[in-house]
Amino acid sequence: MGILYMDSIILIGYIASFFCSITFVPQAIKTLKSRQTDDIALNMLLFSFIGNSCWLIHAISLGITPLALSASMILTFNTPILIMKLSHMYKKRFTQIELQVKA
Questions:
Q1: How many other C-beta atoms are found inside a 10 Å radius of the C-beta of residue 56?
Q2: What global pTM score does this model have?
Q3: Domain holding 88: CATH number?
């Protein structure tokens, strides 16, 4: 359990951080290109946002760099999708209300 072991464990933390961080990249790219959010679950985006915000606070408080990097990167890719989803939901709702008022 020497330095080499600890370095390996730290490296595993950074590798895990990288792969967990890129989970939202394909969805973010697809969503930004297509501007479509209908097939994305709002609850998943909200839970991910809240969970990763908590992980980020936890990691910064304890000085856990790999976890802080992972949480901040996930938030970076999750937040624009969440904003687009909420924006599309409200636009759709206001359009329906306008149509009902005109009818």
A1: 19
A2: 0.77
A3: 1.20.1280.290
